From TrEMBL:
Pfam families: EthD (PF07110). InterPro entries: Dimeric_a/b-barrel (IPR011008), EthD_dom (IPR009799). It comes from the Bacteria. One of its GO terms (molecular function) is oxidoreductase activity. Residues 11-89 form the EthD domain. It comes from Klenkia soli. This is EthD domain-containing protein.
Length: 104
């Protein structure tokens, strides 16, 4: 089973600076987290084109909740977590869950 950490970043005060830091610094920190098996990101948009409270969404997958906990508590995990405060001026919400496949 996959265990996912979902990070939703709010609208930053400077989107270009956010994107540059995320691409040039934060992505490398996240990729160094032990136990990470998949990492994907995307800029969020609403279905109806209205203003979106989310700017960027990141999915970090691990083999289990235990693997995620171990990875996030490692030196690399703590470094990635601490980095969020340096660029996420719109805030960040982090939730995690076991992924359930709902495909018929």
């Amino acid at each position: 089973m996959t265990h996912r950490l979902l990070v939703t970043y709010g609208q930053p005060t400077d989107p270009a600076a956010f994107d540059a830091h995320y691409r040039d610094v934060h992505t490398g920190l996240a990729q160094a987290i032990p136990g990470l098996v998949r990492f994907s990101t995307g800029h969020a948009e609403t279905m109806d084109g209205s203003p979106c409270p989310a700017y960027l969404v990141a999915e970090l997958d691990f083999e289990s909740a235990e693997a995620m906990g171990s990875g996030m508590s490692s030196e690399a995990g703590r470094a990635a977590g601490a980095d969020v405060a340096t660029f996420a001026s719109g805030g960040a919400t982090m939730v995690h869950f076991d992924v359930q496949d709902a495909t018929p």
